[in-house]
Automatic annotation (TrEMBL):
Major site of localization recorded for this protein: membrane
MF (Gene Ontology): purine nucleobase transmembrane transporter activity; purine nucleoside transmembrane transporter activity
UniProt topology in membrane: Multi-pass membrane protein
Span of the signal peptide: none
Protein name: Probable purine permease
Length: 371
C-alpha cells in the first residue's frame, strides 16, 4: 500500500516540474515576442517624422470620435422630435465646405495645380454624388426607426458589400479570410434579425422596424458600391492617389450629393417645416440648431479623418479603426440612449468584431506575401 501510494506522489512531482518548465518557456516566448514587437514598432516610428505621427493620431481620433458622434446625433434628432429624413441626410453633406478649407491651402503652400476636369471625371462625380445622397437618405430612414446600437451594427455589413463589389467591379482578390469575414458578418446580421423584438421602441411598429432594418442593409450595400466605384475612378481616370487628389474627389462628390439632397428637401417642402419642427423639438430651437450643426460637422470630420488614414497608413488601419468604432457607437448608445443590449445583440457585436479581425488579418497577410 505504501509503495502504491508513493507512485502518485512521484508522478505529481514530475507533472509539477513539467508544468513549471512549460510556463517558463511560455513566458519566455511571450516576453520575446513583446520585445520583438516593441523593437519593430520603434524602428517603424523612426522612419517617419513626428509630424506624420501627430497627423495620423489626429486622423485616427477623428474616425473614432466623429463618426460615432455623427451617428448618435442623427439618432438624437429623431429621438427629440425630428421627423424629416431629408433634413438629416442634407445636414450630412451640408458641411462639404470644411473639406475645401483643407484643400485650398494645399494648392498655395505645396504649389500644386488642381486636377484637370474631364467630362468622364465630372460624370463620375455626379453619379457618385447621386449615390451618396441616396445612401445618406437610406441611413436616415434606418436611424429614424432603429436604436443607434442596432443601426451601427447593421451598418458594419458595408464591409461585406465593399469586398464583393470590389471583387466584381475593381477585380480585387478575395482570399479565404475575406470570404470567412463575409460569412461571419452575415451571420451577425441574421442574429439581429432574429432578435428584432428585444430593442424595438414602443412607438415604433414592427413594420417600421423592419423597414429600418431593410434601409440600413440597403444603405450598407450602396456604401460598398460607392467605395468600389470610387476606387475604380482612381484606377481608370485619375491614376494617382496623392492626398490633394483624394480631397478633390471628396469635395466634388460631397458637393454633388449636396445639390441632389437640396433638391429633394425643396421638393419635399422640408425647409419650410424646419421652423415648426424646431419649436416642437425637445429643449427648444437652440438645441435643434446645435444637433443639426454638429451632426454636419462631425460627419465631415469623420470623412476627413478616414481619408487621411487611408492616405497616410493603409486600408488595413482604416479597417481596424472602422471595426473599433462599431462597439464604441453601440456602447455610447447604451449609455446615452439606454439602448437595450440583449444576449443576441452582444453576441452579434462579438461576431462582427471577429469578422472585421478576419478581414484585416487576411488583407494584411496578402499585402505581406505580395511584397
Amino acid at each position: 500500500m505504501r509503495a502504491f501510494s508513493l507512485e502518485p506522489s512521484l508522478l505529481s512531482q514530475g507533472d509539477t516540474a513539467d508544468d513549471s518548465s512549460g510556463r517558463k518557456r511560455l513566458s519566455t516566448t511571450l516576453v520575446g515576442r513583446i520585445s520583438e514587437f516593441s523593437a519593430a514598432t520603434w524602428e517603424l516610428y523612426k522612419t517617419k517624422p513626428i509630424s506624420y505621427w501627430v497627423l495620423l493620431a489626429l486622423s485616427s481620433g477623428a474616425m473614432l470620435v466623429a463618426f460615432p458622434a455623427s451617428s448618435l446625433l442623427s439618432r438624437l434628432y429623431f429621438a427629440n422630435g425630428g421627423k424629416s429624413k431629408w433634413i438629416i441626410s442634407w445636414v450630412a453633406v451640408a458641411g462639404w465646405p470644411l473639406t475645401v478649407l483643407f484643400l485650398v491651402p494645399m494648392y498655395f503652400f505645396h504649389k500644386i495645380a488642381p486636377t484637370p476636369m474631364t467630362w468622364k471625371l465630372a460624370f463620375s462625380y455626379v453619379v457618385l454624388g447621386f449615390l451618396s445622397a441616396a445612401d445618406n437618405l437610406m441611413y436616415a430612414w434606418a436611424y429614424a426607426y432603429l436604436p443607434a446600437s442596432t443601426a451601427s451594427l447593421l451598418a458594419s455589413s458595408s464591409l461585406v458589400f465593399s469586398a464583393l463589389f470590389g471583387y466584381f467591379i475593381v477585380k480585387n482578390k478575395l482570399n479565404s479570410s475575406s470570404i470567412n469575414s463575409i460569412v461571419i458578418i452575415t451571420a451577425a446580421m441574421a442574429l439581429i434579425a432574429l432578435d428584432s423584438d428585444s430593442d424595438r421602441f414602443g412607438y415604433i411598429s414592427k413594420k417600421q422596424y423592419t423597414w429600418g432594418f431593410i434601409w440600413d442593409i440597403l444603405g450598407s450595400a450602396l456604401h460598398g458600391l460607392i467605395f468600389a466605384l470610387s476606387e475604380l475612378v482612381f484606377v481608370k481616370l485619375l491614376g494617382k492617389r496623392s492626398f490633394h487628389v483624394v480631397l478633390e474627389q471628396q469635395v466634388m462628390v460631397s458637393l454633388s450629393a449636396f445639390v441632389f439632397t437640396t433638391i429633394g428637401v425643396i421638393v419635399n417642402n422640408d425647409f419650410k417645416g424646419m421652423q415648426a419642427e424646431a419649436r416642437r423639438f425637445k429643449n427648444g430651437e437652440s438645441s435643434y440648431c446645435m444637433v443639426l450643426i454638429w451632426a454636419g460637422i462631425t460627419f465631415q470630420l469623420g470623412v476627413l479623418g478616414g481619408t487621411a488614414v487611408l492616405y497616410l497608413a493603409s486600408t488595413v488601419l482604416a479597417g481596424v479603426l472602422n471595426a473599433v468604432r462599431v462597439p464604441l457607437t453601440s456602447i455610447a448608445a447604451v449609455i446615452l440612449f439606454h439602448d437595450r443590449m440583449s444576449g443576441f445583440k452582444i453576441l452579434s457585436l462579438l461576431i462582427t468584431f471577429w469578422g472585421f479581425g478576419s478581414y484585416i488579418f487576411g488583407h494584411s497577410f496578402a499585402n505581406k506575401t505580395s511584397t
